[in-house]
Amino acid sequence: MRLTTGILPILVAASLLVTATAAQKGRDKIEIVKAKDYTAPTMERSAELQGILQKAVDEVSAQGGFKPGELAATVIDLRDPNRWRMAEFDGERQLYTASVVKMFYMAALHRQLEDGKITLTKELERGLRDMIVDSSNDATGYILDVLTDTASGGELPQKEFEVWQYKRNRVNRYFASLGYKNININQKTFCEDAYGIEQQSRAYRGQNRNMLTTNATARLLAEIATRSFVNEARSNAMLAIMSRDWEAAERPNSQAVNFTGKALIDNKMAGAKLWSKAGWTSRARHDAAYIETPDGQKLVLVVFTENHANDRESIPGIASRVLKALKESRQ
Question: What is the pLDDT of residue 207?
């Protein structure tokens, strides 16, 4: 059979389309994809909240000696689940994530579990819990390997490395598809330092480090708190391991009592509930917290600080001022 020159390009193009479609379907089996019914949240800027947050940040910054760029904060009022009110201070500034990134890996894993692309084994359940409850870096590396089908090891030649790095960027692609911006979440967390391909992935000098904004972090926590990120059962599972018993005596620098939870302790807010993920390194001190109080407040508050890692007063100081001001404004 002889093909005319006009038909041949059409057949070639059709063949390429079929091949591309098949490849896309293949990627869909491993890529993290948003749910068909997912809708990005709508938030309205609140002048009241902005004034409260700005005053709190100004006072704490003055007391703590913060320089420009060393503090960022975002607050979201969730009392009305259909009308999110928010305010920010430098909320789009990229800052190193510390362990707060683990909340993003947890959420991505639950999306894959919901889609049936990953099976929850006892070992995976243990790793997920340890990553959030104890903030284990080893567990985090395991979870990220599962999510991206990558593994630590020696450096690779450039072409092989690019294939590896594309896979490692899977979580980034997922959150970008949801409309999250200005973040980079493709690295493991370490107690000391990254080596081999992990250092190669960081571009050796840290140019490709994990980076988050308080706005993006607050959005994710709000989506988890309102059970709108994944289904209700999985949302409840995430909240269960993020729950912090701030009224119990724990070790001195625990996530429950030495970050936002300290504000609840200092103000004797009996009955208040706290869910959080903190991050702490030699330079950074961060907390992402969701608080419910007996008087009806439902608040997400995310505070990131740089170069004030041992400052145990600034994050709870902002939280205390925001909670107090909101309570007074509603009396």
Answer: 84
Helix axes 170-177, 137-148, angle to 10 degrees: 80
On the 0-12 / 13-18 / 19+ scale of CB atoms within 10 A, 18 is exposed
Q: Indicate the DSSP class of residue 310.
A: T
Q: Tokens 């840290």 correspond to what residue?
A: 206
Q: Are strands 84-89 and 71-77 parallel, antiparallel or unpaired?
A: antiparallel
In tens, the pLDDT along 139-187 reads 999 999 999 999 999 999 999 999 999 999 999 999 999 999 999 999 9
Q: How many residues does the chain have?
A: 331
Cα→Cα distances 288→24, 74, 100, Å: 35, 9, 7
H or E stretch covering 84:
strand 84-89
Helix, strand, or coil (residue 35): coil
280: β partners: 285
Distance of alpha carbon 103 from alpha carbon 106, whole angstroms: 5
Tokens matching residue 43: 């938030």
58, amino acid identity: D
